[in-house]
Specification:
Blueprint lengths: L2 E4 L15 E7 L3 H13 L6 E8 L5 H8 L4 E5 L4 H12 L4 E5 L3 E3 L5 H9 L3 E10 L14 E3 L5 E3 L2 E2 L2 E2 L10 E2 L7 E5 H6 L12 H11 L3 E12 L10 H18 L2 H18 L1 H5 L3 H17 L20 H7 L14 H4 L7
Helix pairs in contact: 1-2, 6-7, 7-8, 7-10
């Protein structure tokens, strides 16, 4: 596969002579419209002494490359000749960047002033820290958290993800309730500050996933390696969400279910994952009832296909022999908490049962 860097204006205005410590890496695939709308905020609020901006083009067939040449000469571009997906595209760039830190940023994110300083400082000052997530708010409704990440994520005992600020379809308004830095299980890939050394040490994103759940699997492997993952509320970004695959897409349903099952199988000891997946089979079957009753056969078929493909793909992995899930999985069912007990907000959940927040390996400044 031929990979080449598209030459931009090397004498771009404001280019720092000192190499910055961080690369803001934006993955693009046929997203010229998104780049035109959101890249200006990244350029405006990314000081050259802190970071350089790099767009990774995943084999686009629209006018993305022309747009970058003509309207954003200060932005570096890495052009790939084929679509490697979210995982493959970012893995490629993380091998190539020279900075010790990166921010993997979705192309549909608007950043704000001073969004880089605090997460970067946290990574620089804490060697145990592998990743930091900023506060992710909704671009369409800025008073609310955004669905994909909100104020940092966790997994329940059955492997279902949820966030501080978003549980299932309930999204909270931002009233300052999550304005304290805290340990989290996973950080959203929409705006992920990451330590390059840690990223490469755990093997980067899983390319078998292609799209969706890669960041949760990555975070799990960070924890297994002894790293921490944190949420930093002083950095704010605004995410559109669903710009690549909307929530109504059966393909999105397929990737979410399949990759979630693969993640559980590859990160838990075999006997533990076998027991859990037996339970998940019935829970996932129950989850097919609403789509069936509403006539959404595409989502039902997507979920069934996800299970079939999971059974085929699990041969790619050898589950670990000796790892504990206690530090990663919350020991309660978010399904029970939400649907049976009516606990729609993170603050209503049993806080003492969040092991990562009770036993953070090192205090983060």
């Amino acid at each position: 596969m031929d990979i080449h860097t598209v030459s931009q204006d090397t004498e771009a205005k404001g280019r720092s002579q000192v190499s910055p410590p961080l690369t803001v890496a934006i993955l693009n695939w046929n997203g010229a419209t998104l780049l035109q709308k959101f890249l200006p905020s990244v350029v405006e609020y990314t000081p050259s002494h802190h970071a350089k901006i790099l767009v990774i083009d995943n084999g686009s067939t629209d006018h993305s490359l022309q747009l970058l040449r003509e309207e954003f000469p200060e932005v570096e571009v890495l052009a790939l000749e084929e679509n490697l997906g979210f995982a493959g595209g970012y893995n490629e760039v993380m091998k190539r960047i020279e900075t010790p830190y990166a921010c993997l940023l979705n192309s549909d994110v608007q950043v704000s002033k001073d969004w880089i300083e605090s997460p970067l400082r946290m990574l620089q000052e804490n060697s145990s820290l592998a990743a930091v997530q900023p506060k992710i708010l909704s671009y369409k409704k800025p008073i609310c958290y955004e669905y994909a990440g909100a104020a940092g994520g966790f997994l329940d005992r059955h492997g279902y993800p949820f966030c501080r600020g978003r549980i299932f379809a309930t999204v909270e308004e931002d009233n300052g309730q999550y304005d304290k830095p805290t340990a989290i299980m996973w950080a959203s890939g929409a705006a992920l500050f990451v330590r390059k050394e840690a990223f490469l040490a755990v093997g980067g994103f899983d390319i078998h996933f292609f799209s969706h759940m890669e960041e949760i699997d990555l975070a799990w492997r960070f924890h297994r390696k002894g790293y921490n993952v944190f949420y930093d509320p002083t950095s704010k970004v605004y995410h559109v969400g669903g710009a690549t695959l909307p929530s109504s897409s059966p393909q999105k349903t397929y990737y979410n279910y399949r990759n979630n099952l693969l993640m559980l199988y590859k990160n838990l000891p075999y006997e533990r994952s076998r027991r859990l997946l037996r339970t998940r089979k019935w829970l996932d079957l129950l989850a097919t009832l609403p789509p069936l009753l509403s006539g959404k056969w595409g989502h039902y078929k997507a979920q069934r296909k996800a299970w079939r493909d999971f059974r085929k793909m699990k041969s790619y992995y050898e589950p670990p022999l000796n790892v504990s899930s206690d530090e990663v999985l919350c020991p309660f069912s978010i399904v029970v908490q939400y649907f049976l007990w009516g606990r729609r907000y993170f603050s209503q959940l049993p806080r003492a049962l969040f092991p990562l927040q009770q036993s953070t390996k090192k205090e983060i400044k």
